[in-house]
Amino acid sequence: MKMRIMAAAMEEMNEFGVRFTMSNLAARLAISKRTLYEHFDSKEVLIEAIVDVIILDMQTQRQRILEDPYLGLKEKLIKMLSVRPATFIKMEDRVKLDLRRQFPGLWKRAHESTEAQWDMIDEVLREGIDEGCFRPIHVPVVRKLLQGAVNEISDYDFLLEQRKTFHEMIGFITDIVIYGIMLPDKQEEATDLTARKE
Asked: Which H helix or E strand runs over 50?
């Protein structure tokens, strides 16, 4: 029942923001407010539980990918960047802004968890450098590049316009980061041209 309540609350938040009422949530679930409060003492406790479930879900997914001995580094990178909460529908951006403004402590905890999960991605990049799969790169810059790219392509309208899934777009991003945009036989020409200009 708790998961059902949280899933419905996520829908309420996406429609009305964090100002949704417990009365409307009870109506959506076709249960009494009393039943609702038997599971969650307050709306704040409910919102915190939702965020905690999302954090744990994403941490678990990424940890499983990181530890999978059958995945290559490129596959790990793609899968880790593709992780999305499997428990609930996507949280709308405006809800995230609401949380940031009205629940700063909870937002900080969520942000710290997200950064810890990006540390796992850094680990994959550094492992690739150590093993000679990736050329030596400045990992913090790649991290920022990937964070920005993932945020931009998460836009539903953009995905619809491109007729691509989020997972396909992550594949494109990872491919560009790993292989660049220049054809291998053209890389030498570009290097020679740069050297001549200097």
From this structure: helix 43-66
